């Protein structure tokens, strides 16, 4: 007897450092089987860094697949085995924005494209920001070499989302979630 949504076979199509692609033969609810291409990804963390003046730290970074620079939030892959997600978020905040945070709390969780990818993203809220010492700053290379870092009022970030100026999915979700959490007096936040 076969059960619905069971993977009966898997063929690896591509294996890379960041993601792998498989074609799975999956049983469907009506008893048939279908091929579903799946991208397996390490997952990522994203950081809404909010300063004492209610400004969000945005970065502008070149993204080759879309051929342009995008406004985003500090973020990175969960590529260090066994590293706690909050530690990964703090590391990415330091590397991309030269900041530390006295508080890092989970904000929201996302499945970015569940129709074909298992990528899971946890968005953190970072507050009580302080600069990383000049001598301890990360040397940015490749597409990070020309990062533009800017602090923008949270309400203006929300407006940027609605004007189509922030289009990175995790940044859109993070900005809107942070605004809603702030407007609730931070009562919606969960513990780490």
Explain this structure to me?
Helix content is 19%, strand content 42%. By secondary structure, it is α+β, with helices and mostly antiparallel strands. It has two domains: 36 residues, no CATH class; 141 residues, Nucleoside Triphosphate Pyrophosphohydrolase. The strands form three sheets. A four-stranded mixed sheet has the order 7-4-9-8, with helices on both faces. It has a three-stranded antiparallel sheet with strand order 1-2-3, with no helix packed on it. Strands 6-5-10 form a three-stranded antiparallel sheet. A hairpin with an 8-residue loop joins strand 8 and strand 9. It is globular and about 55 Å long. The termini are far apart. 22% of the residues are buried. Pfam families: NUDIX.
Topology:
Elements: E1 7-15, E2 19-27, E3 33-41, E4 44-49, E5 55-63, E6 68-72, E7 75-77, H1 85-97, E8 99-111, E9 120-131, E10 148-153, H2 154-162, H3 169-183
Parallel strand pairs: 4-9
Antiparallel strand pairs: 1-2, 2-3, 4-7, 5-6, 5-10, 8-9
* Distance between the ends: 42 Å
The fourth-level CATH homologous superfamily of the largest domain is Nucleoside Triphosphate Pyrophosphohydrolase
Main sheet: which strands, in order across? 7-4-9-8
Number of DSSP-assigned strands: 10
Sheet-strand content, in percent, reads 35-45%
The average pLDDT is 93
**CATH architectural label of the largest domain:** Alpha-Beta Complex
Helix content: 10-25%
Pfam families: NUDIX (PF00293)
Protein name: ADP-ribose pyrophosphatase
Domain Nudix hydrolase: 40-174
GO biological process, one term: ribose phosphate metabolic process
């Amino acid at each position: 007897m076969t059960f619905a949504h069971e993977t009966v076979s898997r063929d690896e199509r591509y294996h890379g450092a960041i993601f792998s692609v498989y074609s799975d033969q999956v049983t469907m609810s009506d008893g048939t089987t279908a091929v579903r291409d799946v991208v397996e990804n390490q997952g990522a963390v994203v950081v809404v860094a909010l300063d004492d003046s209610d400004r969000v730290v945005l970065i502008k970074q070149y993204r080759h697949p879309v051929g342009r620079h995008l406004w985003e939030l500090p973020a990175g892959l969960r590529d260090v085995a066994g590293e706690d997600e909050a530690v990964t978020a703090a590391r990415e905040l330091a590397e991309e924005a030269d900041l530390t945070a006295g508080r890092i709390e989970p904000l929201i969780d996302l499945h970015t494209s569940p129709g074909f990818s298992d990528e899971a993203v946890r968005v953190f809220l970072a507050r009580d920001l302080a600069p990383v010492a000049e001598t301890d700053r990360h040397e940015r290379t490749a597409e990070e070499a020309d990062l533009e870092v800017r602090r923008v009022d949270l309400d203006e970030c929300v407006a940027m989302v609605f004007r189509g100026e922030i289009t990175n999915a995790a940044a859109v979700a993070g900005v809107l979630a942070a605004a809603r959490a702030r407007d609730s007096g931070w009562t919606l936040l969960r513990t780490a």
